[in-house]
């Protein structure tokens, strides 16, 4: 019997399917790299335009717009999520209506609506107190911020609502028993726990927002794609400048992904906490 | 203010000698849709008493407990805690529903310990305990922390101050939950089946903390299946069935020689 257990060599199984698959993928990748290398792309131009002032200004505008629109979106999202869960039917139905409308209408269309608001309301303000000419107020920046932020709020409201519902009812009861008011309970007990569920999709939406700001190029907001277009209208280096913009989007989204990981780890404390020594 | 306590008679007038009851229930009713969960509960709990409520599941004992600190709103009858009407303000012959702030204020003096502990998972044991005193009572964090550490010591968990609930056993979590209730300096503690979710070997550590508490003169209402605890620690035991208090009295009488057939059947079933 010892012969059955001693000095026998194990021959690993061959994964022919995997080898073939890997070969196909490698060939495809090589073909793509070769295509870009021999294609009509002047890589020198890409390097040159990567850091020109117009592009960097566009980059800053993109980042600023994404952050401000998300701040507006998250603020609206929290407010409307709490309204939607309210026992008051006027509040909850208003929230339902808001979410329905701004989720349904395309973001590009909303941007155009805000930008052209002056056609509907030539002046804005409170009659007798103050008023502005709409064209002067509704700059590309303001129109983009409102359009992107308000539609983001509709999506965020649903994310926040899911987060609030994910917290066990016993947590509400324990907090109420301590004598907390509804606002204290939401801020101190429920939201910190809901954040664990809310942060991953919000991170996702933030990344989406960075890219969505490119729509604002349509209403003349000088974000990075708009800057790139302005340059290639002048010098006809279309692909090179689009690649420049693409590189910057990649950089920004990569940084955001890293930050998202840190925030997720923070809100997971107590749940995935390291074992005690 | 204009709310005077009605005169009450209980089966055990000795406990009332000290003065007005801490908890008084008169004809308390609670419905969930067509289902009547409480069908007129009358009871007076004097200060310093440990009242144990036993009974089959669905008998309404937890619901009654939850009515006392307004996790449920009563549909009939009236409740008083510390001489104050629960959930309403009376003016003449009108009862005005209290607003959120007033309800929150009434709850402050009532501690509650839950079957599933309900510790805040994102806070450490210490943070769980000081949350109420700091946020609700506006106590300085230094003072609250000092008291919280003393409370952790008292429940035997001084070394777990920085542990998150997920790092604690069920028994340890429940002891932190008791410390969290005590940190609010409650006049009354409600226990809703505090040992039912625990592994059998962890039950005694929680019961010991409750026993020690009872000895300090804390007024406690305990919904429990631990008949031994009810017999040894309870001043009175109430047996509830189908939304009513069927039998109320001295633990030895209720648990060993019950008057009612339903009580006897339940106790025999629990004891096997």
Describe this structure in words.
The complex is a heterodimer of chains A (277) and B (272). Chain A is mainly α. Chain A contains 11 helices and 2 strands; from the N terminus they run αααααββαααααα. In chain A, strands 1-2 form a two-stranded antiparallel sheet. With 272 residues, chain B is of the alpha/beta class. In chain B, the strands form 3 sheets. A 6-stranded mixed beta sheet of chain B has the order 8-9-10-3-11-12, with helices on both faces. The radius of gyration of chain B is 19 Å and the shape is globular. The model of chain B is unreliable at 6-18 (pLDDT under 50).
What's the Cα radius of gyration of chain A? Answer: 26 Å
| Residue share in β-strands of chain A | under 5%
Termini separation of chain A comes to 48 Å
* Dominant shape of chain A: flat
End-to-end gap of chain B: 50 Å
Tally of contiguous helical segments of chain A: 11
Shape label of chain B? globular
Radius of gyration of chain B: 19 Å
- Total count of strands of chain B: 12
Helicity level of chain A, as a percent range? over 70%
Give, in spatial order, the strands making up the sheet with the most strands of chain B: 8-9-10-3-11-12
Q: Give the biggest beta sheet of chain B.
A: 6 strands, mixed
Poorly predicted segments of chain A: 273-277
Summarize the largest interface: chains and residue counts: A-B, 25 and 33 residues
